[in-house]
Amino acid sequence: MARRRRALCGGTLLAAVLAGGGALGLGGCGLPGQAVAQGPGVPPSGAVTGSSTARMETAPRRPPAAPAVAGIPGVPLPVPDEDKWIVHVLNRLGYGPRPGDVERVRRMGLANYIALQLDPERIPDPVVQDKLRPLRTLTMPTRDLFAAYPQPKPEERRARQEAMGRDERPRGGGEAGPGRGQGQMEAGPRDPAGMPARMENRPAAIIMELAQAKVLRAIYSERQLHEVMADFWYNHFNVFAPKGADKWLVTSYDRDVIRPHALGRFRDLLGATARHPAMLFYLDNWMSSKEGGPAGPAGRAAAQGNRQGPTGLNENYARELMELHTLGVDGGYTQKDVTEVARCLTGWSLERPERGGGFVYRPRMHDDGEKVVLGVRIPAGGGIRDGERVLDLLARHPSTAKFIATKLARRFVSDTPPPALVDRAARVFRETDGDIRAVVHAIVTSPEFFSEEAYRAKIKTPFEVVASAVRVLGGEAQSLSLLPMAVGRIGEPLFQAQPPTGYPDKGEAWVNTGALLNRMNFALALAGGRVPGVRVDLDRLVASADRRRPEEVLDRLLAQILGRDVSGDTRRTLAAQLNDPQITRATQDDREANTDVAKLAALILGSPEFQRR
C-alpha cells in the first residue's frame, strides 16, 4: 500500500518530500507527516544546527546595538550575531540568502545590516539596474504604452487563442501538466528580452515585463527590504492588472506610486493610490457621480469600449478604502460612512490616459453637499478638499494605525502576531504620523521578531519560493520570462490577483497537496537546469564533497541551502533516500555512487525548512 501511494504521488523522490509535509500542515497524498515536535525553530534531539560546538561552549556575546536610522533612535537587538538569526533576518527582510550573504552580514554586523536595509537610498544597486535595462516598458509613459501595445482586434485575439491552444496540447504522447518530465519547463520562440514571441507588442507583454522586473529585483537587488515592502504595499493597495485599461496603467502605478512610497509616510502613499488612474479605474471611482451627474466622454474612452457613462454614486472604492486600505473590517465604520465617503470622492476621475492624461477632478460630478464621516462634519462647498479631508481623517484614525500595524507584524513575525507587538507598532504609527520606516523598524528590532516562536513560522508564498530558490542556489538568470510563469504555476500570477484584497499573507492560503506538488516540480526543474534562461552551478555548491559518498554531498547541500539548521525528521527523510538508485546512480555493473546532486538539492528545496521563512 505504501508503494502504491508513492507511485500516485509521482515517485519516490516526491513522496519523500510529501512525507515531510507535516511541518507545513500537509499530509501529502495520505503519507504521514510529522511536525517538529518542539515548536518552530527549536531543533529536536539529533538535529544539526548552524552554531558550532565551539560557539556553544563560549559565553554568548552581548547583543549589538542597532544604529540610528534616518532619525529613528537605535535600539539594542535582543540576539547576538549568530548565523541562525542572520538567516532569519535575510529571510524576513528579503528573499533569503545567496551564497556568501551570511558571512557578509556577519562581518558588517546584523544591526548595521538592518539599519542599512531601512535606508535603501544609501545602497548602490547597479546589478539589478543592468538586469532591468532590456525591459523597455518599465520606463515608458502611459501614453506610449497605449501606442506601442495596442489592444488587438477581435479577429486577431481569436487567431492567437487558437494558436495558443495548439501550442499547449500534450507533446510526444505524454500527459500535459506541471508534473511532466519532473518539472521540465518548455520555452517557445523569444525576442531579445526573453518575451514569448506571441506576446510581443501585445498589452499582455506589459504585465509580463512588470512581472519579470519584480522577480529580477527580488533575486538581484541589494535593497531587499524595499522589495519586500513594494510587494507588501502592492497587495495592500491591489489593482488587478488585466482589467481593461489597467493593462496600460499598472506600470506607472507600481513605478510612480507603490515603489517611491514603500518606506515613506502612509498618508502620502494613501493619497497617491487614491489619485492614480489605475486605482480609479480598477474600483470604478472614475465614474462615480452625484445623482444625475453628467456622463463624461473621457471616462467612457478610458473604459476601453464600455459605453456606460457615470450613472450615479459608486461605492466600490469608498468601501475598499475603509475596509482594506485604512480602518479594517472591524474599524468602527458603518454603511452610512461608506456612502458619505463615496459622496466626498465623487468627481475624482481620470482624463484620457491613452493621450497622457491622468487624475482629474470634475466639479460637475461632485456632490458638494454636507457630509458626516465617522462623526466628523464635512461642510458643504468643499469641492476636491472633501476627498482630501476624508483621506486625512482615515490615515490618522486609531483603527488605521492598528490595522496597518497588524498587517506589518503579520508579514514580518507570524500569521497571528503577538498583541503586545501590534500595540507598540500602532503607537509608533500614531506618534510618527504614519512613518512606515519607523513602524517597520519597531517590528524588526523587537524581541517578538527574534523569538523562537517567530523563527520559520511563516510559509513562503509562491513568489518567495521561486525568488529564494534561485538566490540560495546562486542562480544566474539569462532570461526571466519563465520565472514569472513558474510563480503563476505554483499559484500566484504576479499582478493578477482579482479581488481587491490582493494575495494573502497567511500560510493557510498556500498550504495544500497540489501546491506542494507544484513547488516540488519547480525545485526539480530549477536544480536540474530545466528552467529556460536560468543557470545554476551546483558543482560550486558541493565543490569540496566527494560524490562517491552521498551522505557527504547531503551534508554539504544542507549547509549551503539550510545552514545545517534542519530537524531530525527532515534529515532522516533525506538520509533514507541516499540508497535510492535515482540518487546514487549506481548500477549493477558499477556499484560506486555518483550522487545526483540536482535531485538531492531539489529534495532539500522541497523540505519544510526551506518552504518556511
Which key terms come to mind for this protein?
613 residues; 30 helices; mainly alpha; 3% strand; two-stranded antiparallel ribbon
Q: Would you give an account of this structure?
A:
The protein is mainly α. The chain has a domain at 2-52 and 461-611. The chain has 30 helices and six strands. It has a two-stranded antiparallel sheet with strand order 1-2. A two-stranded antiparallel sheet has the order 3-4. A hairpin with a 2-residue loop joins β3 and β4. α7 (126-132) packs antiparallel against α10 (203-220). It starts with a helix and ends with a helix. Mean pLDDT is 82; it is low at 1-14, 17-63, 168-183, 188-195 and 297-308.
Which blocks of ≥5 consecutive residues have pLDDT under 50?
1-14, 17-63, 168-183, 188-195, 297-308
Separate helix tally: 30
The average pLDDT score comes to 82
Q: Structural class per helix/strand content?
A: mainly alpha
Q: What is the count of β-strands?
A: 6
Q: Give the distance, in angstroms, between the N- and C-terminal Cα atoms.
A: 34 Å
The main pleated sheet reads as: 2 strands, antiparallel
Strand content: under 5%
Estimated helix fraction: 40-55%
Rg (CA only): 26 Å
Question: Strands across the major sheet, in which order?
Answer: 1-2
Q: Based on CA inertia axes, which overall geometry fits?
A: globular
